[in-house]
Specification:
The chain is α/β, with parallel strands linked by helices. It has one domain: Metallo-beta-lactamase, Chain A. It is built from seven helices and 13 strands. The protein has helices at residues 3-6, 53-59, 82-85, 101-105, 201-216, 233-247, 250-270; strands spanning 7-13, 16-21, 32-35, 41-44, 73-76, 93-97, 143-145, 150-152, 157-162, 171-175, 180-184, 222-225, 231-232. The strands form two sheets. The chain has a seven-stranded mixed sheet with strand order 1-2-3-4-5-6-7. A hairpin with a 4-residue loop joins strand 10 (171-175) and strand 11. Helix 5 runs antiparallel to helix 6 (233-247). The protein is globular. The model has no long low-confidence stretch (mean pLDDT 90).
Length: 276
Amino acid sequence: MSATDWYAHKSLGDGLYWIQERFFQSPNRANIWLIRGSHQDLVIDTGLGLRSLPDYIDSMGLLGKDPQRKNPLLAIVTHAHFDHSGGLHQFQQVGVHSAEVEALVNGDNYETVTWLRDHEITELPSPGWRARQYRVKAVQPTHILQEGDVINLGDRQLTVLHMPGHSRGSICLHDGDNKLLFSGDVVYDGSMIDWLPYSQVGDYISSCERLMGLVDSEQVDQVLPGHYNTFGAKRLHRIASSYISRAGTCNGKLYTWAWKTASTVALGVTHPRRSC
């Protein structure tokens, strides 16, 4: 199967594209965002990496056909989990928050939370492919990100907001001029996951308080999340405040503890951590 078959995209205007993996039918299917800048082009999250994302972008002409206009293409992951980082090795310039550099350098499938099943891939990327063979390939980041870093695309600037909780290196990218928030898995319009091995509820509460502050200060109009559909500021405030209310209850704490224990054991058996 070619890259042009594997992916599909939709233009959102102003040089912004929404890309998805057509044959990864799972709630874990991540949104891939492509931004065309005047001096630098940016991919936010990279999917599973089963087919070449750069080849798809090039073959579909999403960054233009003029070879004289070719900009550097930078891929940044909002966090290291497999559904976002699997294609990172396909890019020459790659960025991740400093807290998750080691996971990518080591190809650590425990920290990248590699949960993939055969039935989720509805068309095989190659004959005989099986989910149990899948691994996040090791990659050396060229851009190690920190809170407050600015990704300069020329006509757009995106600020790195470190918002741990879902994972220790989770980030959002904030386009303040256009009031857009690329939120990864920090927040999306679904059940927020705080029970993975490197999740921390206290950090997640603080991150949600920060999200509410962005809405209250009118810095966000639209959220472009890591999963599911885009949504607006009011919905962002509601999701964040609902998480804070739930996380502090006894039932919420028990639910998180039970799932965290189960996920840690399951991932430890399937993908034991490397000692290096």
